[in-house]
Amino acid sequence: MSGIPLAVLDLVPISSGSTATEALRNSIDLAQQAERFGYARYWFAEHHLNPGVAGTSPAVVLALTASATSTIRLGAGAVQLGHRTALSTVEEFGLIDALHPGRLDLGLGRSGGRPTERTGDAPPATTPVIDGRTPNGLRIPPKFTFQRLRGSPRIALQRRLLQQPGAEAQDYGEQIDDILALLRGDYRSTDGVEAHAIPGEGAEVQVWILGSSGGQSAQVAGRGGLRFAANYHVSPATVLEATEAYRAAFQPSDVLDKPYVSVSADVVVAEDDATARDRATGYGLWVRSIRTAEGAIPFPTPEQARAHPWADADRELVADRVETQFVGSPASVADQLEQLQEATGADELLITTITHRHADRVRSYELLAEEWQCR
After folding, report:
1. Could you list the residue range(s) of the whole structural domain that residue 241 is in?
2. Region (Disordered) spans which residues (predicted)?
3. Which of 68, 127, 339, 369 is the most buried (most CB within 10 A)?
């Protein structure tokens, strides 16, 4: 398993009683530690209007982190293209690449105020799932519907604040094509006018597509011969259809001659199972805040989480995420990650960990890296 790289996905979480300033400093520290532990990549997610998440601009945070690290790859997981242009995206990453060449991953997602991509008419996965398990035992829960979030006034406000009045998002596939053309330096408008992004043109960035289903993101990544990251930690029910749809659509490119997939997992590791479960106690309450559309709350202490009065409807709301979080000792979590890798055929695994105490979060990544390197 040491041949399967581990990477980090960081939301820059704010713990209860803490501040965005401390969260940012903690994330830069964690990136430095992850580099020392041997993680292959460190990605920053993009989220907006969340009281408990400070990662609003991946490009800004990774630029700061690039100056504090030296070898680990850094990137976005992912830039939300629904409220951005191809040019602004290429120019931002071109600026960072100009000072830190060859270290950047440009992860691109369809979201622009929507909580996740729509599954559309993606074909179901061919891997059999019986009683919620793949043949090797990986948990695949029932699909969660995001309809409640799409109708949320807060989500509508987020979209309005992120976009210029009257603006319409460009077709995702076309936007990806424009980004790739600007990076290559061969962009032409429909009437033949050239455009050159300086800096940006010729930047040594790896382009990734992130997706939660077998819909447009997986199709665009496959047809373009690009790297694809599937979100088990966000949408565990659709990870198999996402990876299978990507591979089915894959066409070799100048970048890749065969599919390349990273799969994410939510993880908390401690010296023993009981300690890990205690440190992960706040996760369910945190997920609940996201899925009720109030926005991610500052990550609670175990005591705060245990004091919350849970209704059956709330437990059902977060069940798929809680039961697919990998929590335990280094050996037990590594076993579950091996299971995830085997079921999805992942070439890499992307680990996201949130705990109330920063030291516990760092320790989780350290213990996992040590265990993984022994396999």
Report:
1. 6-374
2. 108-137
3. 369
Residue 145 located in a structural domain: yes
| Number of domains comprising the chain | 1
- Which has the closest alpha carbon to 337: 34, 33, 1, 30? 1
Which residue type sits at 187? Y
The CATH number of whichever domain residue 238 belongs to comes to 3.20.20.30
pTM here? 0.95
Q: Residue 266 pairs with which residues in a beta bridge? A: 352
pLDDT at 137: 96
Close Cβ partners of 80 (under 8 Å, ≥ 6 residues apart): 46, 109, 110, 111, 112, 113, 162
CA atoms within 13 A on the CB side of 130: 4
Distance CA 348, CA 359 (A): 25
Domain membership of residue 1 (yes or no) is: no
Q: 346 lies in a domain?
A: yes
SS3 state at 118: coil
Contact 298, 18 (CB under 8 A): yes
In terms of Cα–Cα distance, which of 81, 95, 84 is closest to 201? Answer: 95
Residue 60 lies in a domain: yes
